[in-house]
Amino acid sequence: MRIRLFVLTLAVALTASAQTKSQYPQTKKVDQKDTYAGSVVVADPYRWLETDVRESDEVRSWVDAENKVTFGYLGSLPYRDTIRKRLADLYNYEKYTIPQKQGGRYYYRKNNGLQNQSVLYVQRSLAETPRALIDPNTWSKDGTVALTTTLPSDDGRFLAYGVSEAGSDWVTWHVMAVASGEVLPDEVRWVKFNTPSWTKDSKGL
User: pLDDT per residue over 76-96, tens digit each?
Assistant: First the structure.
């Protein structure tokens, strides 16, 4: 099945590619140059595209124009909807992570099948009904805000958890009171490739 699906997809793509020539929008260049080590000049004419689309109308317009070309091409591919439906059917099943016991509670994540993000559940014992503690699907309409690492305190009262937006490596850490689900005002921003740790008395992160 996988081989047939790959061959079909490749054949469709090659056929459409031979029939369609995409016209990409023009991308402006800016006079941006940086000097390193006192004498090495490096041009960076597309620096303006590094601005977040949520903060720049110009970048958002560029992304929209690029997406129009991309999805216009993809929309013209025969059998695309059939392939998409088949893949969705194959992937639409419940998924669980392995439960981990930390701070006197069991934590695990569950995806009902096609959710953008898995939901974090907690329970005091394996016999107790699990409670949804964090549902990242409520954080954004497009499902691009994700829950990264979670870290319960040793006494089980608090849960530190990381949040990443749009696939970024930059993570913002928050702290939640596990019993009530209340998110505390404390946060640690601009964390990259690092996981905090709790003090043994659970009073500091």
Answer: 999 999 999 999 999 999 999
Q: How many residues does the chain have?
A: 205
Closest CA to 107 of 81, 136, 128: 128
* Residue-wise pLDDT tens digits, 13-25: 555 554 557 789 8
User: Among residues 131, 195, 133, 114, which one has the least CA distance to residue 162?
Assistant: 195
Structure tokens at 36: 């390193």
Structure tokens of 95? 């998924």
Buried b / exposed e across 142-167, counting CB within 10 Å, b at 16+? eeebbbeebbbbeebebbbbbbbeee
* Cα of 85 vs its chain's centroid, Å: 22
65 contacts 49 by C-beta, under 8 angstroms: no
Taking the domains of the chain in order of start, what are their residue ranges? 7-12+25-91, 95-192
